[in-house]
Fold this sequence. Notes:
The chain has about 180 residues and is of the alpha+beta class. The protein has nine helices and three strands; from the N terminus they run H-H-H-H-H-H-E-E-H-H-H-E. The protein has a domain of about 100 residues. It has a three-stranded antiparallel β-sheet. Strand 1 and strand 2 form a beta hairpin. Helix 7 crosses helix 9.
Amino acid sequence: MKKFLGIVLLSLLFFKVSYAENCPDDMKPEGFDQTLKSYVEEVYKNYFVPEESYKFGLEVQEAVKNKDLKKLLSLIKHDLISGPNMSFFDGKTFDEAFTESFRSKILSTKPGCIPVGLDKGFILGNGQIWYDRVDYSMFDLREDLKKYKWFSELSSIEQINVVYGFKTIYGPWSITRITETK
Length: 182
């Protein structure tokens, strides 16, 4: 039994070390004296895990590399903040929607460990694709809870009281902007 627990403990330690191989906590962001971990805690209040942002960027790049439009569009969780309407992609292939220049710019950049700019977005290329975690507010929660009978039977005031005070949380990673298409 002790041997088994030792193996489990070593496995967990190895997993932790390998998990943050691209965005390690002790990495120092360019131009800053503090570590990535303290920077994310202080400036961004831990709204994201740097390694997750990096891996989502790789997932986007994989879809672009393979010219897999269906996969790329599946990484968009809500309407784009800026870019084409989703109907723009109806009936198109990857090559009909994007230029080879777009593809090469996306593939030539390394996904980031920290956001760019004030709106906390991550970019690929020269900003051809932006991605981030989806903001999830009390109003989003209210809409999602309406699908449950117990919640939908509450009055509007009661619904608001249930979700009132719910601070913004962040949902799944999503592409938020696509700034270059054909």
